[in-house]
Amino acid sequence: MKPVIIWNPAAGRGRARRRWATFEAEMHHAGVVFEALTTERRGHARDLAARAVRDGASRLAAFGGDGTLHEVAEGVIASGDAAVAFLPAGTSCDFSRRLPRSSWLARLQSHTVREIDVVRIDCHDAAGRAVTAHAVNGANIGFVAAASAYFASLPLPAFLGADALAIASAFSAIRAHRPIHATVSIDGRTAESMALANATIYKTPSLAGGMRLPAIVDSDDGKAGFLFFATERRLPLLSIIPSLYRGRLDRHPRIRTGSAHELSVSTDTPAAIEADGEIVGFTPATFRTRPLRVVF
Length: 296
Prior knowledge:
This protein is α+β, with helices and mostly antiparallel strands. It is built from seven helices and 16 strands.
């Protein structure tokens, strides 16, 4: 069956449109038969993927950034089973770090499919109703969640690149930060309280356009990595920025890292949960993993 490619013309701050034209010509030249579906709004890739799976598609490709992949994966998980190929063409493509280097065409035509873990998030919507979401890379509660929202909305020139945009977003989030009073339970152990600046639960050791996390979990081990940064003050947040991009977070005195099969977080007031750059719900929440078939 021909692959269904869901492509996002807004990815890469609009540069994906030019990249898609080049790739489309390459596929035609190679004689590849495919179906292309174009996203028109936020959340549209999820709807297109769900419909394609219901119509019998067995292989979908996401052409864009991590956000496009996130939506395609959500559509697949919600509607059935299909293999997902990631064709990185956006500003933030952290998920590609979990895959071998490959051209878009080679990835699309690859016969290698593996089950890998993604993060399952059981949380609540703004009205308090139970909802389930997923993250192909990871999820955040706290200032990194706010930074991701800034990353998607800051009106900065595209030529600055993902790293500069991410750093500017982090500083914007720190300026607006207020500590979160949280209770955390890891694999059912006794809950502990902390003044939480940020909690990250992840499978990909790179988030939000290049933040480097400790590589403490494997792609298919059924565990998620976690990183807690506890402080009530803004000043220590400034000291974490260099560590975020140098991959030295596990050496920071205010940071705790580890891995778990299940992790629960409750807060004194509902706190937003970001997954792959999108706000997907609010605490209290429980984080686990579940499999997704991915083309390598």
